[in-house]
Amino acid sequence: MSRLRALRRLVSSAAVSPTPPPLARSVTYMPRPGDGAPRAVTLISGDGIGPLVTDAVEQVMSAMHAPIYFERYEVHGDMNRVPDEVMESIKKNKVCLKGGLRTPVGGGVSSLNVQLRRELDLYASLVNCFNLPGLPTRHEDVDIVVIRENTEGEYSGLEHEVVPGVVESLKVITKFCSERIANYAFEYAYLNNRKKVTAVHKANIMKLADGLFLESCREVASKYPSIKYNEIIVDNCCMQLVSKPEQFDVMVTPNLYGNLVANTAAGIAGGTGAMPGGNVGADHAVFEQGASAGNVGKESIVEQKKANPVALLLSSAMMLRHLQFPSFADRLETAVECVISEGRVRTKDLGGDSTTQEVVDAVIANLD
Amino acid sequence: MASRILRQLIDNRQVVGRGFCSQAPIRATLFPGDGIGPEIADSVKEVFNAADVPIEWEEHYVGTEIDPRTQSFLTWESLESVRRNRVGLKGPMATPIGKGHRSLNLTLRKELNLYANVRPCYSLPGYKTRYDDVDLITIRENTEGEYSGLEHQVVRGVVESLKIITRQASLRVAEYAFHYAKTHGRQRVSAIHKANIMQKTDGLFLKCCREVAEKYPEITYEEVVIDNCCMMLVKNPALFDVLVMPNLYGDIISDLCAGLIGGLGLTPSCNIGEGGIALAEAVHGSAPDIAGKNLANPTALLLSSVMMLRHLNLTDKATRIQDAIINTIAEGKYRTADLGGSSTTSEFTKAICDHL
């Protein structure tokens, strides 16, 4: 059973009290000698609310005395490309935490978020959308992980004007990329004890492109007979998400549909301000706000310092687990969940009116 | 809801003064379709009779053989009928499986040049879903975009699919969106895009929308990135009014909005073609398992026929029928099985006629 679900049961069953209940763990994590040496993590603060929320993570990490230290770099969405020194740092550290980078619309600058994913070959984007206990939403029983192909599809960036007034954009689907994302999705499900993988597609219209994607998913599905596999067309999928989200478990999608499905799923579970996620490849991992990484919030939120740090805090907990510091990850998650379930300190998108700093202080106060 | 209907009445001034009994009947093409299609089409005919709507139906059925002139099961006569009458109503059609012919929907779209698909989504009072305050319209470009069908295998294992955006098609659908907003008294039009990634294609779409927006200064225009749009729709659908989008996003968003109000069984839809052709349709399936059993829910087709009437400027009749449908569902006494009740199609239809 997922740790988060176990924690949720614990938190909801205990009476709401200022100190979190002790963690129930059956066997301990035995580290190798030297595992506690501090790890370097590249930190990109980003644009808009980025600096606010990454600062929140830094504060909480130092309050926990977590064995990581951040190498900070300035990157902004209107730069032409990600600076070489930042890429070097990420390749050395293998792990990065970043705030959103705002891509100017129609500005001729290609998205740095996408560039980063391509250059580091972070081919899987993962968003975990689940109901946070104590946060009222219209839908219950949401626990969906959207795994989205991150490098090709509609985001290939291959566009050109054929004649004035007619523009073409190429969507590229390859067997290689479809296979590896399907492999990742099923492997994730297997390692996390998930029961079902759903492939999202539009192969009734895009028969060759999405047909190839589905073929790859079916091949991989046959190698995991204990995991249920089904397919759903993307428009029906969105309709089902808003009416019966409990039927979905792990979803694997090509690039564009993954964007829409992840945002819809995050929206029904509480909003993109609260859902964690990350991008992972064979060699590197970049953790950021789950869905909608290009959304860096409104000016007013930045000025009033009322950005929601929950998504990035939970993503940094994912990162701690990825770095094999499970106890710190658990402490951080429990603290955040306690703050949310108490309900006194919440930012505007979750129905409250607190500032980022107030949320950070509450999380630090709730740390075990 | 009431204020919206009032706005429509005030804006459609042409209808005032037209005597209904002296009006010549308008001819409209009717495709009952397959499965539950004929039953719900009968329902529409009954309600129209009871409301004295001056429509004369020309019924056409999908053939069993491929017509070489249209390369599909739809005959040339059927298409000519729609072209002549300029309005039509279409029930659910099950595309027969097989190769060598075009799908029925594709045939209609290409032959009649149906460039915009309009779906109003509003919460039906009395039918409770998780969302109570939905009142928006999605207008989707219907001819190009990602659904151009131009795909090919470059080498083994690599497939390319073309997304085409043209100035002409984008201008056309943007014009219709703003025109619709103006004639129906809507305040705001939002263009949905992903131009931060697809800069040239969605960028062209946005440019066209902005050009048209300048001609309608009284309507607020905004642009929303599609991922934000999805999130906002599921958190707070009251934020949106009229949405205009290219083909793929439109497909997904319009189905998402249908899900917000209760599913495809309750959603009206209308396709607009060049030269003012309007083909209203029910977007749900043909439900062969309940065909002929008098259990089908005719709401989607009825609401689509109301859209057809509004297009014909028969706003009074349209409003009467729409109110009757909404009141019947709100009352709760007569509801079909899919809405949680136990009435038959005919009982439900009769209840609507009584409410007129």
Short description:
The complex is a heterodimer of chains A (368) and B (356). Chain A has 368 residues and is α/β, with parallel strands linked by helices.
What do these coordinates show?
The complex is a heterodimer of chains A (368) and B (356). Chain A is α/β, with parallel strands linked by helices and 368 residues long. Chain A has helices spanning 3-13, 50-64, 84-93, 112-119, 175-191, 209-222, 234-243, 255-269, 299-304, 310-322, 326-342, 356-365, and strands at residues 39-44, 68-73, 95-98, 124-130, 143-149, 159-163, 166-174, 196-201, 228-233, 250-253, 276-280, 285-289. Chain A has 2 domains: 37-125 and 273-368, Isopropylmalate Dehydrogenase (3-Layer(aba) Sandwich); 138-269, Isopropylmalate Dehydrogenase. In chain A, a hairpin with a 2-residue loop joins β6 and β7. The two termini of chain A are 23 Å apart. The model of chain A is unreliable at 11-17 (pLDDT under 50). Chain B is of the alpha/beta class and 356 residues long. Chain B has helices spanning 2-11, 37-50, 76-85, 104-112, 167-183, 201-214, 226-235, 247-261, 299-311, 315-331, 345-355; strands at residues 26-31, 55-59, 87-90, 114-122, 135-141, 151-155, 158-166, 188-193, 220-225, 242-245, 268-273, 277-282. In chain B, α2 crosses α9, α2 runs parallel beside α11 (345-355) and α5 packs across α6 (201-214). Chain B starts with a helix and ends with a helix. In chain B, 52% of the residues are buried.
The figure for the number of domains of chain A is 2
Q: What proportion strand of chain A?
A: 15-25%
* Helix proportion range of chain B: 25-40%
Number of helices of chain B: 11
Q: Into which percent range does the helicity of residues of chain A fall?
A: 25-40%
Rg estimate of chain B, integer Å: 20 Å
CATH class of the largest domain in chain A: Alpha Beta
Number of helices of chain A: 12
Mean pLDDT of chain B: 87
Q: Write out the strand line-up for the largest beta sheet of chain B, numbering strands in chain order.
A: 2-1-3-12-11-4-5-10-8-9
Shape of chain A: globular
Please identify the oligomeric state.
Answer: heterodimer
Shape of chain B: globular
Q: Roughly what is the average pLDDT of chain A, rounded to an integer?
A: 89
Sheet of most strands of chain B: 10 strands, mixed
Q: In whole angstroms, how far apart are the ends of chain A?
A: 23 Å
User: Biggest sheet of chain A: strands, sense, closure?
Assistant: 10 strands, mixed
